[in-house]
Design brief:
about 0% strand, single chain, elongated, Serine Threonine Protein Phosphatase 5, Tetratricopeptide repeat, about 60% helix, mainly alpha
């Protein structure tokens, strides 16, 4: 009896666990993959176009009042730098003042501040700044009509650029030299303005050159 029950249980368990026996190579059909949701809301928006506007360059005119304010600001900065012995920065302040005076045809003041800047730049071994100052000084002397001294300043600037190997500054010196040679017969400016006071705070006396 026990063997009979054992045989029946084994047959039933075999039929329940081995269903692959009936369909061994049955391929299951898979449902199609669900497509991802797509949003076309952007395509429905109207296409925006940027208007092409040609911006014309605007030149801001410096009125005498604005120039006076700039001069006062740079002068105060130069005085501050000289007071606290920031000579390198003060040298550039003097150059800025000189260039501003050159644009206003105030040649006397421009020459004075250029001489101060040259003195400091030489002491600070700032060769490139010295060359730039010599070129501006040559321009001022050429505007005075003193072409001989202008050529001396150009020669000194050229010699300094060659000795230091400053090729870019040498090209600038050559360009300035050709410009002055082409305009050496220009009539000197007669409406030269002179400074009432050329006070820059604790500034040493100008160098005679």
């Amino acid at each position: 009896m026990r063997y009979f029950l054992l045989i029946i249980l084994c047959s039933v368990g075999f039929n329940a666990s081995a269903q692959w026996y009936y369909k061994p190579f049955n391929k299951r059909t898979r449902s199609p993959q669900i497509a991802y949701a797509q949003s076309h809301s952007i395509k429905r928006l109207p296409v925006s176009t940027i208007a092409k506007v040609k911006i014309k360059p605007t030149i801001i005119e410096h009125t005498p009042y604005v120039l006076a304010m700039i001069e006062e600001s740079v002068m105060k900065t130069a005085q501050h730098n000289m007071r606290f012995h920031v000579y390198n920065a003060a040298s550039y302040n003097f150059s800025d003042l000189a260039q501003m005076y050159m644009k206003q045809n105030r040649l006397a003041e421009a020459k004075w501040f250029l001489l101060q800047s040259i003195t400091i730049s030489r002491q600070q071994n700032d060769d490139r700044h010295t060359i730039a100052n010599l070129l501006d000084l040559a321009t001022v002397k050429a505007d005075y009509g003193d072409y001989a001294q202008a050529k001396q300043d150009l020669a000194e600037a050229r010699q300094l650029a060659v000795s230091r190997g400053l090729t870019f500054d040498l090209a600038t010196v050559e360009k300035k030299t050709r410009y002055l040679q082409d305009n050496k017969f220009k009539i000197p400016r007669s409406e030269t303005r002179f400074a009432e006071t050329a006070d820059a705070g604790t500034i040493t006396k100008p160098v005679n050159k």
